[in-house]
Amino acid sequence: MRTSPNIIVTGTPGVGKTTHCEEIARRTGLKHLAINQIVKDRECHDGWDEEYSSWIVNEDKLLDALEDDTIPEGGYLIDWHACDLFPESWIDLVIVLRVDSSTLYDRLTERKYSEKKLQENLDSEIMEVLLSEAREAYAEEIVVELTSNTADEVESNVARIESWLEQWKKDRTG
Ligand SMILES: Nc1ncnc2c1ncn2[C@@H]1O[C@H](COP(=O)(O)OP(=O)(O)O)[C@@H](O)[C@H]1O
Question: EC number(s) of the enzyme (predicted)?
Answer without folding.
Answer: 2.7.4.3
